[in-house]
Amino acid sequence: MNSVRLPDGARLATYLDGSAHAPVTAVLVHGLSVTADLWRSHVPLLAGEGIRVVRYDQRAHGRSTRGTAALSLDQLADDLTHLLQATVPRGPLLLAGHSMGAMTLMRLVARHRELAPRIRGLLLISPPYGGISTRTGTGPAQSLLTLSRNLLASACTHTPRLLDATRRRLPTTSRWALRSDHTHPASDRLPLSCRKGLHATATSDIAALWHDLAGQQPDPNPLQQLGDRVHLLAGRLDAHIPPEQTRRLAALLPDAQLEIVPDATHSLPLRHAQLVTDRITRCAAPLFTSSKETAKRSRFSPNASRTLLPPPAQPQESLERPAASSL
Question: What is the model's pLDDT at position 101?
Answer without folding.
Answer: 97
